[in-house]
Every structure is written in structure tokens, then in C-alpha cells.
Amino acid sequence: MNRILSITLLAVAFAVSPVRAQLKINLDSLTAKAKESVDVSLDGSLLQVAGKFLSADKSDDAKAKELISKLKGIYVRSFEFEKEGQYSQSDLDPIRAQLQAPGWSRIINVREKDEGAEIHLKTEGGRAAGLAIIAFEPRELTVVYIVGPIDLSQLSGLEGHFGIPAVSVPAPKKKATK
């Protein structure tokens, strides 16, 4: 699943500009059910403060520092559950309803059995203006919302920072020939 999400993110190259209307991610009801949860809510001013803790000498930190200097916000909600069935797709309905509003488009939808990923893009005036990612597995759920100008081909520079998971991309499996 993570391989598909990584490949998808790296394949899409848009520039995202500031979003006027904030996407509301309210998944508080899942916190008590999860064995582990992450809640990152960094607006522009907090991102600038956080950016000061990144080293310009380390290449990964330098990439992240450059990217966040332009961002207006990073919001991540991630949950890991003890067993399957502790959340349902209906928990995501309020978020998906917002993503149906004018200007939002689902640009990627990947499903494999009981896991999947969706990437939604907000456009304003013909320009990309927001990015929302929903990734789910039977015992894991992550929603990421990034606000501000970002080139998605550079998005990997944020992996491992601010609650955004680091994702390795293994080589694709070859199909067996008959």
C-alpha cells in the first residue's frame, strides 16, 4: 500500500498555492479506539518555528526546510488500531463530503482488497490550491492535508517530518508468465 501511495505521489507534479477554505478533519472519536494516534496541526506560523529546528546541513532536513518555508499548513491525523473493524469508512464521510465541494477533484483512487488511498486536489483559478490524502488499511488510517505552494514531485522531502510517514519504494513485482 505504501509503495502505491509513494509512486502515485511522486508521479504527480503540480504546484499547490494557498487554500482559502480550510478542510476540517475531525476524527477525534477514533482517538479512544486507537492503540496509537498522531495529531499534527501546524499552521503557517508554527511551521516557520518548526522549520528553525531543521538543519540546513542535512540534505533531508534542508529539503523539508525549503518546502515548509512556503507552506500555509500541514495537518496529519493517523491512527493504528489493535484489531480490524475499530473504524469504518463511514468515519471518513464528513471529510469526503467536503472533498465533493466545488474546486475539489479526486485525482487518484487506488483500492486493493480492504486497503486503499485517495488523493484529492483543490483548484482555484486554474491553479492547484490544496492537497488531501486519505490512506487506509484494516488496522491503520491516515489523513494528510497540506496547504500552500508545494511541488508534489518534491513531497518526499517531507517524509519523516511533522508526522508524515517515511515511505520506501520497493521495486515493482514482476508478473509471472504462464
Structure characterization notes:
This protein has 178 residues and is an alpha+beta fold. The chain has one domain. Helices cover 19% and strands 30% of the residues.
List the topology elements.
Layout: H1 2-11, E1 36-43, H2 44-51, H3 59-68, E2 73-80, H4 93-98, E3 104-112, E4 115-124, E5 127-137, E6 140-147
Antiparallel strand pairs: 1-2, 2-6, 3-4, 4-5, 5-6
Main attributes of the structure:
single chain, 178 residues, alpha+beta, six-stranded antiparallel sheet, disordered N terminus
What's the alpha carbon Rg, rounded to whole Å?
Answer: 16 Å
The major sheet is characterized as: 6 strands, antiparallel
- Count structural domains: 1
List low-pLDDT spans.
3-20, 166-173
Number of DSSP helical runs: 4
Distance between the termini: 26 Å
Q: Please tally the β strands and state the result.
A: 6
How do the helices and strands follow one another from N- to C-terminus?
Answer: HEHHEHEEEE
Net shape: globular
- Give the strand content: 25-35%
Helical content stands at 10-25%
* Oligomer state of the chains in this structure: single chain
What is the overall pLDDT average? 77
Class by SSE composition: alpha+beta
In spatial order, strands of the major sheet run 1-2-6-5-4-3
Give me a quick take on this structure:
With 178 residues, this protein is of the alpha+beta class. The protein has 4 helices and 6 strands, in the order αβααβαββββ.
